[in-house]
Task: structure prediction
Amino acid sequence: MANDIVVVVPTYNESENIGRLIEEINLLRLPLDILIVDDNSPDGTGEMVEALKKRIANIDIIHRREKEGLGPAYLEAFRYLLAEGGYKYIVQMDADLSHDPKDIPRLLEAASRCDAAIGSRYVKGGGAASDWGIFRKMISRYGNFYARVIAGLEVSDCTAGFKCYRAEALRSIDLNKKFLNGYGFQVQMLYELERKGFKLCEVPIYFTERRKGASKMSLNIVVEAFFYLLLMRLGIKK
Result:
């Protein structure tokens, strides 16, 4: 892995999607690497990526022992990549094809003008699929409103999972501190960057529902984020 750009994709039971996603990313013909972070998927996602590695040079994988959630997977990847050095831009995206790889060039272009570019559903030109479930829509809308108020963020899509970070911005964050496991992790990352004075910008994207497999969203993830973000704002350690 020797390019300036790396795309990080956490996986758990994404064997139906990961091959297609890797193919679509590489169709961009950009000088980038792809790092998969697999939480010991019982459906064989990790083994599938290992097989792809044998014929696709820009793929690497971190095998984790168990399912711990989105936050721990990204943190392990970020620590690994920053220790390796060499990357200027670190892109994060979901494995379920709800994020369109064709938006990666626009995120990279925006990140050349700011410290973290956010693929946003809630700015002009952005949106989400009409078949998105009512539960997901409510969680997303109200979750973003709550995050903006509690964390004091001036970002329209605080829970966005499609981002491009400058490596030096990520390096400024203590990646060994306590972070949430679920989508609240996304809010915490933006909070850490904004309070350190880094510039955040938003790029409109269209978010679609996953094409195959089951959503990882749960009520426990929502409750975790609600209470921890409040404690974070109050300066109380969990």
Remarks:
- Helices lie at 18-26, 45-53, 70-84, 104-111, 134-151, 167-171, 184-195, 219-234.
- The mean pLDDT is 87.
